[in-house]
């Protein structure tokens, strides 16, 4: 595993045939960094590209889908199941778990209905949402045939401790062990 500093000047070939993970706290720029890399791949001859966007809609400045233009979407296959923010919407631990379980059901529906082997590159926005109830093994089993994977996910202290947060952190740690390069983004104030 290689841990690299953040530098957007890396050419696409620095990511080919590797699993790359971008991690940080809420509002650290994970989605923005992912969008820059995605735009580099769209401009390259490295296609087809799949995008699995697991972020909820932005709520109180948290979350948010990858903001792609219609022209950019024309060059990729974009998959985005309906996802809700369990820790922001759930009022009890049971509600949080129920929302996370429903998110996982929707994500699994996409993971198991798409023929991922046709993609040379796969971007996953907000992979940590999947790990509220699922595992790294489940993820890699579904997308193992994609040679180049670029993911981002929450890895911070914004959300209070609890079963979902503990499980998410454990699976993100496991994901880091399975990646070739990791970008740690510093948090932003506010």
Helix fraction bin: 25-40%
N-to-C order of helices and strands: EEHEHEHHEHEHE
Major sheet, described briefly?
7 strands, parallel
Please count the helical segments. Answer: 6
Strand order of the largest sheet: 1-7-2-6-5-3-4
Low-confidence segments, given as residue ranges, are 1-8
Q: For this structure, what is the CATH class?
A: Alpha Beta
Architecture, CATH level 2?
A: 3-Layer(aba) Sandwich
Distance between the termini: 32 Å
User: How much of the residues is beta strand, in percent?
Assistant: 15-25%
CATH topology: Rossmann fold
- Counting structural domains, the number is 1
Count every beta strand, where a strand is a DSSP E run of 2 or more residues. 7
């Amino acid at each position: 595993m290689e841990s690299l500093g953040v530098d957007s000047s890396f050419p696409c070939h620095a990511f080919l045939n590797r699993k790359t993970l971008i991690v940080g706290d809420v509002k650290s720029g994970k989605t923005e960094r992912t969008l820059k890399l995605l735009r580099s791949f769209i401009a390259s001859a490295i296609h087809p590209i799949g995008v699995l966007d697991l972020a909820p809609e932005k709520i109180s400045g948290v979350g948010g889908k990858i903001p792609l233009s219609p022209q950019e979407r024309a060059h990729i296959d974009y998959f985005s199941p309906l996802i809700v923010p369990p820790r922001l919407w759930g009022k009890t631990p049971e509600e949080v778990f129920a929302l996370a379980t429903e998110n996982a059901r929707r994500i699994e529906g996409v993971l198991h209905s798409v023929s991922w082997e046709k993609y040379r590159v796969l971007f996953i926005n907000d992979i940590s949402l999947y790990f509220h109830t699922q595992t790294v093994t489940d993820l890699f089993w579904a997308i193992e045939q994609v040679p180049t994977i670029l993911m981002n996910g929450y890895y911070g202290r914004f959300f209070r401790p609890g079963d979902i947060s503990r499980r998410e952190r454990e699976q993100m740690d496991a994901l880091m062990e399975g990646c070739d390069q990791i970008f740690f983004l510093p948090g932003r104030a506010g």
